[in-house]
Amino acid sequence: MGLVSFAEAQKLARVESMKVDAIFAAATDHQKASPSPLQPMTDREILYLAQKYLHGLEANVGTVPFEERARSERLEAVQEASFDISQGGIEDAGLQQVASRVAGSAGRPSLPLSDLLRVTEAIQRALLEHYARDEDRASLRAEGRYDPAFSAVDGRALPIPPLTVRKAIELYKADPERSNVAPRTRGAYEFRYRLLEELLGPDKLIGSVTRADVREARDIMLRLPPNAAKRFPGKTLREIAVAAEKDKIAPMSAKSGVLYVEALSALFNWLSREEMVSRNPAVGLKGPALDDETDRRSFSIDELRKLLEASAFNGECGYGWLYWMPRLALYTGARFAELLALRVADVVEEDGVTCISISPHENRRLKTRGSKRLVPIHPALEQAGFLQHVATQPEHGLVFPDAVGPKDMITAQNKKMGREIRSLFEDDTLVFHGLRHTFKDAAGRARIPRDLVSMLGGWKIGDGHAAMDSYGRDRLLPVLFEEISKIEFPGLDIGSAR
């Protein structure tokens, strides 16, 4: 407040209405996306406005004068202002003007009379709290806290806005960090966060979520069976968990459970980082332990031979995507989606090396930034006739047009690939992605430097930029071709589509 005269103190409430614009302009306003003015304000929203207003007053309070006379004048001014505010009541026009400006700064430029009076009352309480504290300061007493609604408010940190679970999840999903999430991944996220919203309570204030709440949400999620909503339509998640246990239906896999727990932790980590919660109730929250034996593994030579000689993959059904996909994965280390969505234009020649260009386009999003890369075509693929296959496809089309169907191509054909592989092997750790591990193992046996293996496969291991700098950008592709050509699988004949 600063040093004021007795006469000025009588006008202090009116002066505050002029100060509030500057105070709120300097503060980050989490309420700009608040509901339409036609929607009544909640008690928690109004309390937050008053808390934020008090924070602004406390942050701009003047230094207590050293001279006793000046302190006495300040004390008298504060007491007079406090009396004026307490006597004015919520019908006071000046106080209503302050309340209206506070609400307008928070994205509520017009209020129904009932809301205006409620905001005015809250602002009055904030002013009285401010004057009571300033009276302590002017009297050289220990500064007290008088109204419980403002006990945690000071001039240092902005009060935490009243976010509900639903609103917090909406803000998290809208964060720019998640703007490039692939549609398929986004769909999975949406489902997980719908579950979290139901389990935590959509209208529960995010700041009131406790450790017990997140543990309960985790435990219920881990008891849910696959396709829970389809199996038990019309039931709540808690009811589904109980019914599934009663009917002895196995819960979701441990890997799926880990993804749900990670979604819960990621939400609160982000809220904590953005200072929307004062504490993180999900910190260190653990999902189910994963059994190493159930992880995806590499293929042995015998298993590769069995895979490539199977009727679905040996050319009996044609030389389309089913024929080429396992062979490409084996000699490039690329992911399923990266290969299936290859365009003819993605097969390029640079620095005298024929490569597959793995980059994002309308039919393909990449998993990570490091996934964008050029992978030289292994001599074994060229000998098997891959380049001839590419040459027979339309210039502006896909390398595997036979994979296109009425449904999402990547999802549908990934499931088909999984079914074909499962029909050959009882071991459920043998999946298409295991070919990527097989490539990496073969690169290790060939003693290819780890940073170059990282560049070939799009892994995060190593420093691709350092590798590029050490070999020279103009020599990098020839070096990559030389290294990838060292990969071999003794005793394996991948056949030929020539």
Structural commentary:
There is one protein chain. The chain is mostly helical. It folds into 3 domains: 108 residues; 110 residues, no CATH class; 186 residues, hpI Integrase, Chain A, CATH 1.10.443. 52% of the residues lie in helices and 3% in strands. Helix 5 packs across helix 6. The longest helix has 26 residues. It starts with 5 loop residues before the first helix and ends in a 14-residue tail after the last helix.
* Averaged pLDDT: 82
Tell me the overall shape: elongated
CATH topological fold name of the largest domain: hpI Integrase, Chain A
Return the string of H and E elements: HHHHHHHHHHHHHHHEEEHHHHHHH
Assign the CATH architecture of the largest domain: Orthogonal Bundle
* Largest sheet geometry: 3 strands, antiparallel
CATH class descriptor of the largest domain: Mainly Alpha
Care to count the β-strands? 3
How far the N terminus sits from the C terminus, by CA atoms, comes to 87 Å
Adjacency order of strands in the biggest sheet: 1-2-3
Radius of gyration: 33 Å
Low-confidence stretches: 1-38, 462-473
The count of helical stretches stands at: 22
- How many distinct folded domains? 3
GO molecular function: DNA binding
Keywords: DNA integration, DNA recombination, DNA-binding
Organism: Rhizobium leguminosarum
Protein name: Tyr recombinase domain-containing protein
